[in-house]
Amino acid sequence: MKVLFVDAGNYCRSPAAEIVARTMATQIGAAGWQFSSAGLKDKHVGDTADPRSIEACATRGYDLTAFRCREITDHDYRTHDVILAMDRDNASQLEARRPFGNTTPVRLFLGSREVPDPYYGESDGFSLMMSQIEEGVRVLLSRGQG
Q1: Residue 103 buriedness (CB in 10 A; 0-12 / 13-18 / 19+)
Q2: Taking a C-beta distance cutoff of 8 angstroms, is the pair 97, 120 a contact?
Q3: What is the dihedral of CA 135, 138, 141, 146, to 10 degrees?
Q4: How far is CA 135 from CA 25, 45, 117, 130, 132, in A?
Q5: pTM for the full model?
Q6: Would you say residue 122 has pLDDT above 90?
Q7: Chain centroid offset of residue 134 CA
Q8: Could you say which of 3.20.20.70, 3.40.50.620, 3.40.50.2300, 3.90.1150.10 is the CATH number of the domain covering 2-143?
């Protein structure tokens, strides 16, 4: 199962989701899972993740220091089994960018709920983000599907 996490800039939420998913999958021995992330904008391409995301991940035992941001490509739609958006706006933009004829499912990561963007908020937003991401990854891995 190849899962792509997507948010606006691949700077806060989606990198955290990627590293949490990779770490949890390894810890439980969930073979066959591959995780990556991307953003809808090119603003942060090549940058590290938001320092607050790096810190929030480190606080919970996840190492996000080697991560580099990237923008989603048409290739991503073809090579992933499911694309998980962090919020409804991201999902809408993903649908608008979908290559003609592509049928890869685009869903909200948390089902009917969103992972709020903590970028403009206080540091407690990053703690909430991490709790939601850990919960979402546990559910994703327990279902064994995207």
Answers
A1: exposed
A2: no
A3: -10
A4: 13, 27, 16, 8, 5
A5: 0.96
A6: no
A7: 11
A8: 3.40.50.2300
